[in-house]
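I'd like us to work through together how a protein chain folds, taking it slowly. We need material for that, and I hope you will provide a protein of your own picking. Go ahead whenever you are ready, and we will take it from there:
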Amino acid sequence: MTTGKHRSPYVRLFAIPGTKAFCLSGAVARLPISMMSLGIVLALNHLYNQWTIAGSMSAVYILAMALVTPFYARLFDRFGQRKVGVPALVVQLVSMLAFAVAALFRVPIAILFVLAVCMGLTQFSFGALVRTRWAYALRGQENDELLNAAYALESGIDEIVFILGPILSAFLATSVHPVSQLFVPTLACGFGGLVFFSLRNTQPPVVEPVLVAAAPASDADVRAALNSGSQGTAGQVPTDSLGVKQLHTHRSKSKSVLLYQGILPLLIVFVVFNMSFNAFDVSVTALMKEIGREQFLGLQLALVAFGSCLGAFAFGSRQPKHSSWSTMVRFLVLLTLGDILLRLTMHNLLFLGVCEVLTGLCVSPLFATGNLIVKDIVPERSLTEGLSWLTTAGSVGTSFGSTIAGMVLDVSTPQAGLMIPWICTICAVPLALFGWLLARGKKTQVTEE
């Protein structure tokens, strides 16, 4: 008979009450991350036939979203997911509908840019909220080993979303209406988000610092501590006596996640290698349009996500043998090789598709590893903020990728655009090595102490 510990980690994850509900609803609510950015590019290119405008507006939307994601995360950590999430979700839905309607009626570009910024400023990271719930659901020494599987699962779900999103966006843009793909993610976000925030049993509690009033000088324990300090042998205080510093406590101040050692190098790595993804999407979109195969665009983009989904479940089914930083370096090297293959095989769609699946195998493990690094660095009370900073870094990178790819495509060809992904990933490798060295140095210092 198979014991509990020998069952699949995914079976054990969903045996925990409430996990199925928040995992599924969070997945539905995340559909905009795979549709809105690409939907903006498709809609604007169809309406105005300009890659730079389309790529820039997508980048503006992503950048605005990246700027406010940590702010929302801090509110979630401080006041709770439901209390902040419900009103924030309503505002988000209104802004998404406003942008979609404005694009449908072809308002001037300047107004669309303003609406894109407003829409981005209302977005928050459902992925970070779900991962925080997993950390809460798996709290305790017995379930700690499952957290790697949970984060890999969420990375896999992200990729499933990225499989369905581009296919749906491309189909709606080419077969229904150039703007129709902006309405579907709005509906999905509203439905999934409302269900997610209604699940109170798995909502992490708010961790608040407790204010303890300082003991007055006339207090008996304070006088005893002072007297014991003056009467100890050779100035030594007995170990069972209360010290004055122990009797005076103050409110603990919330430390910014960015100040924890190792966070900034990790964020820089995520900015750089995430530039490759939207640069690839925009360049492949231009390639499909150039060769008259736009009907296959969604499938072509989904193949990378399919490979990443496979990589996520394979990565989460076993415990990593190496440190998280060394694992990240290895997968970045493999991703760079994969991006080079994508450029070399771009003229044959069959070979390109095979290489997209193989390259995608490296993507989810990178994100899952980044989440584990954050979990190891930041305290539990700031976990949502820490994970959201990772999302922000990735969003900043993808916005840069959209902008750069759009500018390159307006003056050159898709062949030049597909050079951008491997250049970005190869630049991320030495940055990850630097983060690995910092982490090893810190571990050595702690061991010596």
Q: What stands out?
A: Confidence is low (pLDDT under 50) at residues 232-252, 445-449.
